[in-house]
Design brief:
This protein is α/β, with parallel strands linked by helices. It contains seven helices and 15 strands. It has one domain: Metallo-dependent phosphatases (Purple Acid Phosphatase, chain A, domain 2), CATH 3.60.21.10.
Length: about 300
């Protein structure tokens, strides 16, 4: 797989600009057909209710949409990113959280994906953190491109979502393999106060729990990407049986959700692991219904 990964990286660097240009003009339908042959493009919107301790009543029902691991590249072209953005906008969220890995291999895809993501709309803003692939390609340029399109990039810092006289901190850190600084990101947030942390890599969970973060939103794992019956995860961004591969978990006071993401790496293929857009609904904590849960059709 590493040899294939290096080969694709070389192709992307050599031909990335021409493919982006071709897709934007005459090659659009050809790219769409190729993508659909290798990746069916299904995106599952998953609905979740999150209960946070000490959440002000004014934030009840706040809706957060998460997009993760877009990996805009030869294998996840322009129209596929546009489909995900359109679906996210139809949910009419209050906040949009982008949890990294916007591009794969080539700098040629940075500005196009940032421009598409710049059409995301949320009442309280669109917030992003960087993933390991963004650092491998060009973290500085990814940051600048996103910010040019009105996306707030949280690089080891936090901001406040303000509503009806109350505020909710939302923090973000760089990828754990590069320059992550959780202490700096959380500086000034009162311990025990409701808080949200965006971290591309879910391995931050132990440190986040130590710091009493309320909720972590992550990606990176792709949910395993290829999950076979009886064999489990055989390929993807997480080892088999990794605890925080996808979905909900909790460590101490901290809840975490790991999104399966949108794109793929190495192989343009998902097996029993559809792309995902999580849609979260915040609620004040109720001791009689303590655990987060996936919303039913009746909820």
């Amino acid at each position: 797989m590493r040899h294939w990964d290096r080969l694709v990286e070389r192709w992307s660097r050599d031909f990335g600009s021409s493919f982006v240009e071709d897709y934007s003009f005459a090659g659009a339908e050809r790219h769409r057909a190729l993508h659909r042959r290798v990746y069916d493009g299904r995106i599952e919107v998953t609905e979740h209710r999150i209960r946070l301790h000490n959440l002000p009543e004014n934030f009840r029902g706040l809706r957060i949409v998460q997009l993760s691991d877009i990996h805009h590249s030869l294998f996840l072209p322009f129209h596929a990113v546009l489909d995900a953005v359109s679906l996210a906008n139809r949910l009419k969220p209050d906040v949009i959280a982008l949890t990294g890995d916007f591009v794969t291999y080539s700098r040629a895809y940075i500005e196009p994906v940032a421009a598409i993501l710049g059409t995301l709309r949320a009442r309280h803003g669109v917030f992003a953190v960087l993933g390991n692939h963004d650092f491998r390609v060009d973290a500085g340029e990814v940051t600048r491109a996103l910010e040019r399109h009105a996306i707030e990039v949280l690089r080891n810092r936090h901001t406040l979502i303000r509503h009806a006289g109350h505020s909710l901190p939302i923090a973000g850190i760089d990828d754990l393999g590069y320059s992550a600084d959780l202490s700096r990101a959380l500086h000034g947030i009162r311990p025990g106060a409701p808080s949200i942390l965006l971290s591309h890599n879910p391995k931050i969970i132990r440190r986040a729990a130590h710091c009493q973060v309320s909720l972590v939103l992550s990606g990176h794992t792709h949910g395993g990407q290829i999950n076979l019956p009886f064999a489990g995860t055989v390929f993807g961004r997480s080892p088999e049986r990794m605890r925080f591969k996808s979905g909900w978990d909790r460590l101490g006071p901290t809840q975490i959700y790991v999104s399966r993401g949108i794109g793929t790496v190495v192989l343009p293929l998902r097996v029993r692991c559809p792309a995902e857009i999580p849609h979260f609904h915040l609620q004040p904590y109720d001791s009689s219904r303590a655990a987060p849960h996936r919303l039913s059709a009746e909820s």
